Amino acid sequence: MTATDVPELVATGLTVRFAGLTALDGVDLTVRPGSLHALIGPNGAGKSTCFNVLSGVYRADAGSVRFGDAELTALPPHRIAALGVARTFQNIALSERLSTADNLMLGRHRLTRAGVLSAGLRLPRARSEERRHRARAAEIAEFVGVAEHLAVPAGALPYGVRKRVELARALCAEPRLLLLDEPVAGMNGPERHAMARAIRQARDALGLSVVLVEHDMAMVARLADEVTVLDFGRRIAAGPPDRVRRDPAVIRAYLGEQS
Ligand SMILES: Nc1ncnc2c1ncn2[C@@H]1O[C@H](COP(=O)(O)OP(=O)(O)OP(=O)(O)O)[C@@H](O)[C@H]1O
Ligand SMILES: [Mg+2]
Questions:
Q1: Of the candidates 91, 121, 119, 116, which has an alpha carbon nearest to the alpha carbon of residue 104?
Q2: Cβ-contact 167, 202 below 8 angstroms
Q3: Does residue 255 have its Cβ closer than 6 Å to ligand 1?
Q4: Which of 147, 174, 201 delimits the end of a domain?
Q5: Domain extent for 105
Q6: What's this model's pTM, rounded to 2 decimal places?
Q7: Ligand 1 pocket: which of 22, 29, 49 to mutate (most atoms <8 Å of CB)?
Q8: DSSP string of 95-155?
Q9: Element (H, E) at 183
Q10: In a domain, 255, yes or no
Q11: What's the pLDDT band for 1 if we cut at 50, 70, 90?
């Protein structure tokens, strides 16, 4: 059970306004099936806003998001999730007292018929369904390198491992498109490497598309097939990482942030 039939994501002219501020201003974003796409830009550029539109949390004021045959801009978050779009958040959102395994089972909720954790009637069919989901969750834990922590409460795990459990939980929904908002924020060097490896392995094993918000250009260059750069809500560059990195408009935007 891997992500087959992954459609292209094509956002055009995305515009989001908050009171007097235009957070996204006519942004285009194309994510090829199975690619790892980095969305970068200085603080406040509109990256999280873009994710919020793609996942249905915010409604776009203008523009369209096509995911295969579906138009996402008119859909509520649960319908977008049902089409195979999963995300992680800038801040960790795990149930700290539940084990890693049970957190992953929550990630499979969309795919379960009887809400396996709460199934009061332990009928044979429910039991075998639960076994199947637990086996798949364990397999996904393996891809992202958290299998050894399955029995441990999420709250007891080191920060870097918790972030990878979050990645695993999003993958447990069997997404075709995965949105990762700053998955390595606040991590030390080894944790960043472990996360980068987990993201690459998950993509390779499952064949899904990934959009990654990330500040570290070196990591983007290592991981991403393509990059889209936002600055003040506008797309200022798009293309392969080595070309985007040398783009004068991109260099200016990042230098401006440091001064
Ligand atoms: N719900 C909101 N209400 C009002 N303004 C908002 C809201 N969400 C975002 N903004 C504003 O929109 C702009 C883009 O914010 P966004 O969070 O998308 O940036 P970002 O690129 O994710 O930045 P960061 O790198 O700091 O996470 C910012 O000026 C922000 O203050
Ligand atoms: Mg953000």
A1: 116
A2: yes
A3: no
A4: 174
A5: 94-174
A6: 0.90
A7: 49
A8: -TTSBHHHHHHHHTGGG-SS-TTT--S--HHHHHHHHHHHHHHHHHHHHTT-GGGTTSBGG
A9: none
A10: yes
A11: very low
